[in-house]
Hints:
Helices cover 36% and strands 22% of the residues. The protein is built from nine helices and eleven strands. The strands form two sheets. Strands 1, 6, 7, 8, 9, 10 and 11 form a seven-stranded antiparallel beta sheet that branches. Strands 2-5-3-4 form a four-stranded antiparallel beta sheet.
Amino acid sequence: MRIPAYPAAERAVRALAEAVGYARWRREVAVTGRVPEFEDIDEAGAAADIEVLLEAHGATTRAVTLSAADTQRLLARYGIAVLPALPAPDPDSAVRAARRLGFPVALKPTAPHLRHRADLGGVRLDLGGETELRRAYAELTELLGKPEELRLVVQSMAPRGVDTVVRAVIDPAAGAVLSFGLAGAPSLLLGDTAHRLVPATDRDAAELIRSVRTAPLLFGWRGSAPVDTPALEELLLRVSRLVDDHPEVVGADLEPVIVAQHGVHVLGASIRLARPPARTDLGPRSLPPY
């Protein structure tokens, strides 16, 4: 039997800590949780929609990004609602959209180079009437550019809460991966994002939101009100089911997802579809039963 040797005591301690952590994790995998069933999921309807969309785009293994309407329709098949938003190519259209949705509303750009750029001051919230909306429209177009370049939309206001990001992608080695983090600097700048394999169990979803370093913000940090983490866990599980049921869904991005004291509110979403490539290997690796 070979005896491991390390050039420094610190490395030996680190190796021992990794071994202890691995043993603990192996003990825990026996309690895997369960993949819940949702009675309102329309798997067959989603499959039919996906086939029509792939045919319409002439897609092979090259991914195509769905329109906002097609994305919302597909997500709705899995019980995931995106907060309504209407295009506002001019101030009059913005006012009509706000009247249709009901004040107060938000006004924001959806152009790719401005999306999720809160640092530019390109989002106006809690616009309570026509005068406020027209003033905000003029300010945004003066600050950021022409309406056609900004692709402005009017959206219903969501309750205050914690802004989060939910994503799912296909990793060539691991398969489908579900990711979660807080929106903005925590995930973009600090890389504070957690990941789990799909299909995610209820235990996976609970651990996922608790494993990011900024998780205390969800549970009442420094006297703030805790948000609805059970609703967030359910959203994660629904996204996991969508990706697991349909291998054509090669990417799903929900951002931002506002987790309020009661419920979650998806403000933006995009989905990418592609024909699954033929596999020459045995698929993602898995551990043998413990």
